[in-house]
Amino acid sequence: MATSPQNTALTIGDVVELQITGIAHGGVSVARHEGRVVFVADAIPGETVRALVTDAKKKSFARATTIEVLEASEHRRDHIWAEASIERAPEDRVGGAEFGHIALAHQRSLKGDVLVDAMQRFGGIEADALATKFSGVEAAPGDDELNGLGYRSRVRLHVDETTGQVGPYAVRSRRVVDVENLPLANTQVGQVAPLGEIMNGVDTVDVVAPSADDPRMLLRMEGEKTRAGEKDIVRELVGDREFIVRAGGFWQVHREAPEMLFNAVRDAISTLIVDGSFTSGAANLDLYGGSGLLAAAMGEAAGRTLKVTTVEFDEGATDDAAENLAEYVGALAVTARVDRYLSELLAAAPSVRERLKRGTIVLDPPRSGAGGGVIAQLVKLAPANLVYVACDPVALARDTKSLIEAGYELTSLRAFDIFPHTHHFESIAVFQRA
Length: 434
Ligand SMILES: C[S@@+](CC[C@H](N)C(=O)[O-])C[C@H]1O[C@@H](n2cnc3c(N)ncnc32)[C@H](O)[C@@H]1O
Known about the structure:
By secondary structure, this protein is an alpha/beta fold. It has three domains: 5-76, CATH 2.40.50.140; 107-144 and 254-433, Rossmann fold, CATH 3.40.50; 154-246, no CATH class. The protein is built from eleven helices and 19 strands. It has helices spanning 5-8, 104-121, 127-133, 187-192, 257-275, 293-302, 315-324, 338-346, 350-357, 371-381, 393-405, and strands at residues 15-23, 29-33, 36-41, 48-55, 61-71, 137-139, 154-159, 166-167, 202-208, 216-221, 233-238, 241-246, 284-287, 307-312, 330-335, 360-363, 385-390, 408-417, 426-433. Strands 6-18-19-17-16-13-14-15 form an eight-stranded mixed β-sheet, with helices on both faces. The protein has a five-stranded mixed beta barrel with strand order 1-2-3-5-4. A four-stranded antiparallel β-sheet has the order 8-7-9-10, with no helix packed on it. Helix 7 links the parallel strand 14 and strand 15 (330-335). The longest helix has 19 residues, at 257-275. S-adenosylmethionine is lined by residues 250, 288-291, 293-294, 312-314, 317, 337-338, 364, 366.
């Protein structure tokens, strides 16, 4: 098959000079080479760089990695992690800190640009409407003082199959790299992490430092199917509230993140209460509820009479949610897949459907978002309000479009920088039935 001239213009291994014009989703910047989009790692919008082409298979775009900065952005800083810096060969750079060469405040500004762009392009929201609802990505308390370092209470390390050496993966690869330290990890994690040790037969090493319990190392052996630490119950403090969670289960990694998200959901519910659009005794739901953090935030705003059901497919997390929500007599924790649970609700008696229509649904899906199927079910259930907590801005934006087309209005949008030095951040969008 003949290849177009564009297709032949770049080949893996080429080194090209690129002007970086913007930021894209996924922690890469955008440039153009003879009309073709190039996603460039380790660059900053406004820079001119020399970059090594690492992927040129697709007609519409190529990928490249910065190897030299010709004109640096004023926001460029020495990388917070020497093993991730452009001083190293691209294949030897460690992953997990892809914004570590950018000034912290500018990282937040770029994350805000990504959210606004996604909400406009995939969510169909006009720039003017967005400007009135969204005022930028908010920093976690203490991060500016600490330059966004030392925040992680959980870190996953990997073990090289042949050498047994422990470390993080290289960027976009499954190759273990040797590192001297983990600058994003908190002190306890740093003390326990077995960096550079040889651990033959082990597959992954999770280092977990709960806020109200001893740090620990969870080993998953090669070929083992069960998750390490799924029965190990640890205590976490959120403000003055104690939660129990599985050491190997889901919990936000930034020391401030559980409290920030708890407060943001509590405040969103308080606003709905002031508006008169939240009903405490309706069929309220906390979907993808984990150990019940966000249902408890609903309870903090609505009080002891709150009725809420958390839905989560991890049985251990559901057990913990039941315990964490014990003060709410109207709280129920259900182990189920969200789509299956919603199918049952759609088949429920009219009185139950009516209570759901008056209800508020908090949802906090994994990175892929709720997705078309679950959103279609939610639209059929037609709750009064949805509080959508999202770790992927594009997935949020796609689901936003479906909700708006179904008659919901986006009434508030906030975002939180709970993953400094990476491209990740968390958003909370509130939708109300028009
Ligand atoms: C992003 S976490 C949120 C947990 C909780 N809201 C919190 O803040 O701690 C997503 C949760 O959804 C669960 N989950 C993922 N897919 C699911 C599904 N299809 N049905 C039910 N639970 C699911 C995961 O086990 C995880 O606990």
